[in-house]
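Request:
You are asked to prepare a plain-text protein record giving the amino acid sequence and the backbone structure tokens, at your earliest convenience.
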Amino acid sequence: MLALSAEGVLPKVDYAIFADTGWEPKAVYDHLDCLEREIARPAGIPVLRVSSGNIRNDALDPDHRFASMPLYILNKDGRPGMTRRQCTGEYKIKPIKKKVREILGHPYPQRIPKGVFVEQWVGISTDEFHRAKDADVRYMRNVHPLIDMGWSRSDCVRYLTSLGLDDTPKSSCLGCPFHGNAQWRNIRDTSPAEWQDVVEFDAAIRQGNARANASGNPLLGEAFLHRSRVPLGEAPIDHVTAAEQAALQDGPADADELENGVVDGCSPWACRGDAEAPEQGDFGLAC
């Protein structure tokens, strides 16, 4: 959407906002730098980077209130469980809304007058039109340009390829529990330092939230990043699921977005394979 706006195919947006959790892959930060340098800046579109903190550091800090990740839990009786997903609201939605309020000239806790709002573009394609939702606040109105253009995910990939952006990385936390095997393998096989980082984090959160443990509310079980509920360094990430194999037959671009029959990974704009459905997200274009 940023490139389409910069090229004049879509109206020129006033801002692009990236909510940084502080724990994205280096490839994502490099790609964002490239988009800002090669596409946004020449078109006169400011890229605003906002943050509520570093999600990795906050999770391991007993003195910091932490919005929990959706960790996989193995209870003492052997039953599986999962912690609540609160990280999207804290590290994605909250900083974007804060910045939008500042742009409108009504920072929290000021009341925003009726009729004052931003138009916020959400990059959902026709493949997932059912995920298109209205915003949950009056000062943000969601628009879905890709759906309006009739563009599928394949159309988006072709367009990015035509711009030389066919290697666009997925934006998500390095240690997101919603990663599928393909994403875990990609980290392990292409970035040893980042793999070591997530393996160490997985071990560090085994007993749950550091703040909860420090306050005398320990997790009644063990927490894991991988859905197999075994330590990440030992998890069966080389297993290729039927859904992943089917995706591979359609092309490598889809392979690392499918796992166990659902779209793989965190998707803050509207949920993919998760019970919770937040309305805002991590990369917005506002005009």
Observations:
- Residues 26-43 form the longest helix (18 residues).
- Residues 2-286 form one domain.
